[in-house]
Request: fold
Amino acid sequence: MTADQPIGIFDSGLGGLTVAAAVRKRLPHEKIVYLGDTARVPYGNRSPETIHTFAEQDAAFLISKNVKAIVAACNTVSATALTSLQEHFPELHISGVIEPGADAAAGARRIAVLGTRATINSGAYVKALRERYGENLEIITKSCPLFVPLVEEGVLNGPIAQEVIRHYLEKIPEPDTILLGCTHYPLLTEAINEYYNGKVRIVDSADAAANDLKKYLTDNNLLASEDNHGSLQLYASDIASGFREQATRFLGTDVPEPGKVTLTD
Reply:
């Protein structure tokens, strides 16, 4: 691997662009290739075998773009297929979002993990948190399925967002830390913070994944030169109406014209 190769990031859809945004913020000189498997989103209702197959196809596409590292910016893949991906492509550093998110939760006493049903049911965050902090950490898990359509519709603040947040969070004991276990959820950070009147710490697994990637690149002398201009190439397996609007929302800036790809073995 060389420092001037791009970073690869993939997700089952566009939510992983929050990871891409965090990577661009921390590593502004890097070239990024992003793949959203929008033709087959979501992965959460698929069998483990299918998720493994899809994840391998996603990674193989990014490897064809000569990437130096890959971030699986998908909680379902991170929970279900990350180990098999790492074994299938041992020549490349492949990281996920769950382990970095758990690392970033240090110091919590009562933590609420918010995620999709598939991620919560996998138990992956609880396992990662227990491995790090033992039984003294109180862990609450809550699936919040309506958070995803809120984000995709751009309803990030206001009475509707607050009512949906209240619907889920008023039913759990108040935590001191919230871990956002879905790449859609960082866009609701402000609204969640408002619900708790700024009294809880919010850990963003997208930020944590970007920090984890930066450490790997730094430790292995793979950081792009500061003379380089960062760039983003965006690919998707389906480009539907409203694609660029949603992608812009997740990335926080205008997106380049996407390329359409067909994913196979």
About this structure: The mean pLDDT is 94.
